[in-house]
From TrEMBL:
Highest taxon above the source species: Bacteria
Pathway per the UniProt entry: Carbohydrate acid metabolism
Complexes and interactors: Homotrimer.
Similarity annotation: Belongs to the KHG/KDPG aldolase family.
Organism the protein comes from: Rhodovulum iodosum
Descriptive protein name: 2-dehydro-3-deoxyphosphogalactonate aldolase
Alphabetically ordered keywords of this record: Carbohydrate metabolism, Lyase
Length: 201
């Protein structure tokens, strides 16, 4: 089963990246983002892409410029996640053949992102919008728009977000904080996968 969850490994180091990502993949989470404000983030992306690129979608988050898109692509990343709606970044992502998931909060930002070519919307920060807000925004989005709730969605609220029209989630500190062991991450990942599977049925 493919789960529409992006695991956000903010703050991870290249030395820890392979072990943590391996634990995530084994638990069933196969979309992995290394935010570019992590230590030596492009090194981590490159290592993950080399070792796990055939088994997982590896990419970068907090991507703010076309130059950063190019750097992620050169490192082997396939997924570009941003905190904002920047048409230049979206267009550069699609020109490079990568998956674009920009951050958006308002209907204006959501529609601007889609017009620029976004593959999915990162509803961020989800905690401020809430499922009720997504329900309202969904009324004006194209029917097949992919929406990921990020920044406030978790196992306890998966069902409510699905009911509101979310297609998936980005999960950060509920999965990983700097210094966490692969064993710790694996245990959290199994709980999140179980909650996702229950809510998605």
């Amino acid at each position: 089963m493919t789960r529409n969850i992006i695991a956000i490994l903010r703050g991870i180091t290249p030395d820890d990246a392979l072990g943590v990502a391996g634990a995530l993949i084994e638990a069933g989470l196969t979309r992995i983002e290394v935010p570019l404000n992590s230590p030596d983030a492009l090194d981590s992306v490159g290592r993950l892409a080399e070792h796990y690129g055939a088994h997982a979608e590896i990419g970068a988050g907090t991507v703010l410029s076309a130059a950063e898109v190019a750097a992620v692509a050169a490192a082997g990343g396939r997924l570009i996640v941003s905190p904002d709606t920047n048409p230049e970044v979206i267009r550069a992502t699609k020109a490079a053949g990568l998956v674009s998931c920009p951050g958006a909060m308002t209907p204006t930002e959501c529609l601007a992102a889609l017009r620029a070519g976004a593959d999915a919307l990162k509803l961020f920060p989800a905690a401020l919008i809430g499922p009720a807000g997504l329900t309202a925004i969904r009324a004006v989005l194209p029917r097949h728009t992919q929406v990921l709730a990020v920044g406030g969605a978790g196992p306890d609220s998966f069902a409510a977000w699905f009911a509101a029209g979310a297609n998936g989630f980005g999960i950060g500190t509920a999965l990983y904080s700097p210094g966490d062991s692969a064993r710790t991450v694996a245990a959290r990942a199994r709980k999140i996968v179980s909650a996702y599977d229950s809510a998605a049925t």
